[in-house]
Amino acid sequence: MDGKNKEKTKIEELRERIAELQEERKHVILEKGLSAQENNDLRENAQYDFWDRKEHNYNSRIAKLTHDLELLKIRLKPKKSPKRSTKKERIEKIDLKNIPKSKWL
């Protein structure tokens, strides 16, 4: 149980970190938009390039943490229960000759 709890706390920590990074990325996207408005020629806008690179950095970090989270979830899946062996019981053979005949048969 202790190992599962540790993995669950790791999952919770990863989820919290992903949420934090997403909030920071929202701020970066806003700054990138503001810098794009300041200078219409984006080829010469170093500030836009800075925020664009920062956004890509956040996207890659979020993708990595999401991948780690998926790997932890895969490990937490319950193990399949072993298949029960279904041994067939032998059925006793009935001797039909010894059974009395009824009028309905």
From TrEMBL:
UniProt domain Transcription elongation factor GreA/GreB N-terminal: residue ranges: 10-74
Record's keyword terms, sorted: Coiled coil
GO function terms (MF aspect): DNA binding
Alphabetized Pfam families for the sequence: GreA_GreB_N (PF03449)
Stretches assigned to coiled coil: 4-31
Gene Ontology terms describing biological process: regulation of DNA-templated transcription elongation
SUPFAM superfamilies on file: GreA transcript cleavage protein, N-terminal domain
Keyword Coiled coil found: yes
InterPro entries with a match to the protein in the record: Tscrpt_elong_fac_GreA/B_N, Tscrpt_elong_fac_GreA/B_N_sf
Entry keyword annotation includes Coiled coil: yes
Name of the protein in question: Transcription elongation factor GreA/GreB N-terminal domain-containing protein
